[in-house]
Amino acid sequence: MVRVILPLHLRTLAQVDGEVELAVEGAPTQRMILDALESRFPMLRGTIRDHATQQRRAFLRFFACNEDVSHQSPDEPLPPAIATGVEPFMVVGAIAGG
Fold first, then answer.
1. Which of 22, 69, 91, 98 would suit a FRET pair with 62, their CA atoms being 20 to 30 Å apart?
2. pLDDT at position 65, please?
3. pTM to 2 decimals?
4. Which of 42, 40, 44, 6 is nearest to 24 (CA)?
5. What is the 3-state secondary structure (H, E, C) of 16-74?
6. Average pLDDT value over all residues in the chain
């Protein structure tokens, strides 16, 4: 089981409290996790990634084992600690302003 932590606005939209657990086969990648997340919670489609390009939305970042993996290939395997559920995959909302 892969654990996923979503920012408050996405947890509210998906109507979940706390972490989400997803079954992902094999070595998980960002794409696999996001595909599983959008499959389980269809209301999240288009909120994390663009519908057409599948690119990450500008004000969201992805973290694995406290490392920003937002700019890595979405098909690159994530650390084993993510695959085993020891560490969560985090979707973090960026803060902008002046």
1. 98
2. 97
3. 0.92
4. 40
5. CCCCEEECCCCCCEHHHHHHHHHHHCHHHCCCCECCCCCCECCCEEEEECCEECCCCCC
6. 94
Residue 53: domain span: 2-93
CB count in 10 Å sphere of residue 47: 17
CB 91 within 8 A of CB 57: no
Domain membership flag for residue 98: no
Q: Which two tokens stand for residue 5?
A: 């932590």
Q: Which residue has the higher pLDDT, 26 or 15?
A: 15
**Contacts for 51 with CB less than 8 Å, ≥ 6 apart:** 45
User: Strand 67-68 vs strand 89-93: parallel, antiparallel, or unpaired?
Assistant: unpaired
Number of domains in the chain: 1
Q: Could you say which DSSP state residue 12 is in?
A: H
